Fold this sequence. Notes:
The chain is mainly α. It has one domain: HPT domain (Four Helix Bundle (Hemerythrin (Met), subunit A), Up-down Bundle). Helix content is about 80%, strand content about 0%. The protein has six helices and no strands. It has helices spanning about 5-10, 15-25, 30-55, 60-75, 80-90, 100-120. The longest helix has 28 residues, at about 30-55. It is elongated, with a radius of gyration of 14 Å. Residues about 1-5 have low confidence and may be disordered.
Amino acid sequence: xxxxxxxxxxxxxxxxxxxxxxxxxxxxxxxxxxxxxxxxxxxxxxxxxxxxxxxxxxxxxxxxxxxxxxxxxxxxxxxxxxxxxxxxxxxxxxxxxxxxxxxxxxxxxxxxxxxxxxxxxx
Length: 122
């Protein structure tokens, strides 16, 4: 990942609470339910992505990145959404050499996102 892309992602919110709340019409109960589902399902999606990257299965990488992009977009997790999109763009450009570097970025950003989201569940 280039420094420019990394800076762009870091400028995005880990979680855009206001955007997410607006998209679900202010339903805080629904917000908590969706967050709980996201926190339960996303580690499995990420494991699928990591496995596909490590095995070099670009079709599985595309599917996993697409699924993660949708899941993170649904809850307004802007940084992880951007990371997923970068993976998809890299695949379209046949630039698979740096895909493993995304694993660390995903882990780091998910850890931050997990902490932020859990604060909304209390």
